Amino acid sequence: MNIAGFDIDFPITDPTWIFLIVLVIILFAPLLLNKLKIPHIIGMILAGVLVGEYGLNILERDSSFELFGQVGLYYIMFLAGLEMDMEDFRKNRVKGLVFGLLTFCIPMLLGIWTSMEMLGYSFVTAVLLSSMYASHTLIAYPIVSRYGLSRQRSVTISIGGTAVTVTLALLVLALISGMYNGMTTPIYWVMLVLKVTLICLVIIFVFPRLARVFFRKYNDAVMQFVFVLALVFLGGGLISLAGMEGILGAFLVGMSLNTLIPKVSPLMNRLEFVGNALFIPYFLIGVGMIIDVRTLAAGGEALKVAAVMTAVATLSKWLAAFVTQKIYRMSANERKMIFGLSNAQAAATLAAVLVGHEIIMENGERLLNDDVLNGTVVMILITCIISTIETERSARRFAMDDLSSGAEDRTKEKEKILIPIANPDNIEDLVNLALVVRDNRYRDGLVALNVVNDSSPGTSEEMGRRYLEKAAMIASAADVQVDRICRYDMNITSGIVHTIKENGITGVVIGLHEKSGMLDSFFGSLTSNLLKGTYREVMVARLMMPVNTLKSILVVVPPKAEYEVGFSRWLMHLCRMSSQSGSPLKFRADAHTAECLRQAIDNIAPGVMASVDVVDDMPFNEMMSVTVDAEQLLVAIVARPASVSYDPVFDRLPSVLKNFSSSSLMVIYPEQAERQDVMSFSDPIGNQ
Fold it and tell me: Residues with Cβ < 8 Å from 60, sequence gap 6 or more?
C-alpha cells in the first residue's frame, strides 16, 4: 500500500513500528476511555481486536506479543501474590478454600450438563470445556491495586480461591491431555504429584531465603529488580517442566516474596510500574488480537456455542460468589468484588482450549472443534468486559466507604515524620524506616532536614544538599514525596527543634549516635538535647540490615506505658512496620500493659501478627535480658523524665544496651503531653 509516497505493507512487521503502535495504544487508550467511563483494561483488549488480524490487520500477533504477553500474564499472577495481606490470607484461608472449591465445582457441574444437553458434546469434551469455565484469570486485579484495595477481605478470598480453582482446572487439563498422549499409567500421576509438590516446596521455602540473603548483600535497585524477575520466571519455568502451567509458579513466587518486599518501597514501586506500564498492557492487547468478532455476525452453531459458553461461565461464577456471600454473611459489595475478580477468563482458559484443539480423537475430529475455539475467544472478551466493569464499580464503592469511615481520622492531626540527615551511611536505612512507619494513605508526610552550623557554612551546605537529594530520590522511588529543608542554625539540635515547631512534625527518626571517643556518651549530646527540646515522638535506630529482611521485631515495654499520650502512635508505627515487612511483633510487658496492648492492636491493626510475653514484677533492665539474633530487631520503649512510665533505669540505658552492640536496635521515646519550655539559670537557652 502506498501512502503519501511511502510503501507500507499490512500487517506491519518492522519491530520499531510495532513497538511504537503498541506504546501509542497504551498511552492514548486510557485517555480516550476515561472520557467514555470505560475501564482501561477493556480498552486494551478492544484495541487489540481493532489492530489485530480480525480487525484492521495493522499488526500481526508475532513472537513479541507471545513473549511480552507471557511476561504480562506472569506479572498479573506474581503481583496478585505479592500484594496479598498474608496475615489476612491466613485468617481467611478457609474462606478462600471454600470459595475456590465452589468456583470450581459449580462451573464444572453446570458446564458438564449444558455441554452435553445443549451442545451435544461427549463427556470428555464436556469435562474439558467445563474446566475452562472453572478457571479464571485476575485480569481486573490492576483495578484493585490502583484503588489500594489489595487487602480487602473479598480480594484476599478471591485470590485464595483463584489459586485453588486454577490448580484444579490445570489438573483436569493435565489428566485429559495425558489420556490422549498415552500417559495414563499410575506412575505418571505419582510422578506428576511428586514433581509439582517438590517444586512448590522449593519456591515456598528456598526462594525467600535466597532473596533475603541477596537483599542484604546488594542494595542496587537494578540488581534487585532483575533478581526478583529471575525468580518469577524460574518459578514459572520449573512448574512448567513439572507439567503444570507456569502461572501457578509465578503466583507462588509472589506469595513467597510477599514479606520481603514492603508494599511501600522503591522495589515494589518499580515492579508495579514496569508491569502496569508495559508488560500487562502488552498481554491484554495480545488477548484482543486473537478474538474474531466476525464469528458473532456469522451466526449458526458458532454463535450458539459462544452464547452458551459465555452464559454458563458468567452464571456459574456469580453463583459461586453468591453462595460464598451467604455462607459467610458478607456484604453485597463484597460479593460484587468476588464476582468481578473471578469472572474473567483468559490464561488457563486459553491454555485449555489450545491444548484441546490440538488433540485429535479416534474418529478424526478435534476434541475441541473450531466452534469452541471461536466461542472461547468471544467468551474471553465478554467476561473480561463484565469483570472489569463489576470490579471497577465495586472498587469505587469500597473507596467511597473508606472515605466516609475515615472522615473522623482526617480531622485529626496529620502525621509528618522528620528525618534529620548528617551521616551519608545511614540515609537509606532511615528513609526506608520512615517509609514503613508512615501513613501510606498519603503520598507525602516525610521531611528531610540538614542543619548547617552558623560557624561552618560553605562546604557543609553543599554536602547537606546532596544528602537531601539522595533522601528524596530514595523516597521518590517508592512514589512518596519528601519535603527538603536545609537551614542554618546555632547548632544542630536547635535547628531540629525549630523545624519540628515550624512544620508541625509529629515524629522524628534519627540514627543512633556513633561514639567518637572514650568520653563520648552512648546517645550523644544531640539526642539528649533533642529529647529535652521536643515532646514529640523520637525514634533512635541502628539497623544492621534492611528493614524488609528482618524476621521478627522484639519490643520491650515498661509498666504503665499505656498511660503515655503517645502510646497509640508508637504502637501504630510498629504495627505498620510489621505489616510492611512481614515481621511478627513479639512484646514483653507486665499483665496490665499486655492486655492494653492486645486491645489496642485489635482496634488499630487487627490483622497484624503479634504476640505478648507477660513478665510480671520484673525490673526493666531484667526485661531487657533477652537473646536477640542477627535477623531480629530489638525495640526498647522508654520515657523522658517526669513521664508516667519513667523508670530511673532509663538513665542507665546505655549500659543495658551494650550487650546488643551487634544487633539491630531501636529506642522509641513516646510523645508526651505538650509542655512549655522552661528557662532556668542552669539552662539559659531553654534546653536547646
Answer: 11, 12, 13, 53
- Can you read off the three cell numbers belonging to residue 73? 500474564
CATH number of 412-530: 3.40.50.620
Locus of grid cell 519550655: 677
| Apex 73 CA angle, 18 and 607, nearest 5 | 140
Are β-strands 537-542 and 664-669 bridged in parallel, bridged antiparallel, or unpaired? antiparallel
Place 155 in a pLDDT band, splitting at 50, 70 and 90: confident
Residue written as grid cell 513521664: 643
Torsion angle in degrees (nearest 10) through CA of 644, 649, 651, 652: -160
* Contact (Cβ atoms closer than 8 angstroms) between residue 247 and residue 255: no
455 vs 133: CA distance, rounded Å: 74
Percentages helix, strand, coil for the chain, rounded to the nearest 5? 60, 10, 30
According to DSSP, residue 12 is labeled B
**Phi then psi for 270, rounded to 5 degrees?**
-65, -40
**Among the four given CATH numbers 1.10.10, 3.40.50, 1.20.120, 2.60.40, the one describing domain 543-673:** 3.40.50
Interatomic CA distance for residues 446 and 436, integer angstroms:
11
Q: Would the pLDDT of 571 be above 80? A: yes
CATH class of the domain at 2-403: mainly alpha
User: In degrees rounded to 5, what are phi and psi of residue 60?
Assistant: -100, 140
Given a cut of 50, whether residue 32 has pLDDT beyond it is yes
pTM of the model: 0.72
- Alpha carbon distances (Å) from 155 to 75, 143, 253: 17, 11, 19
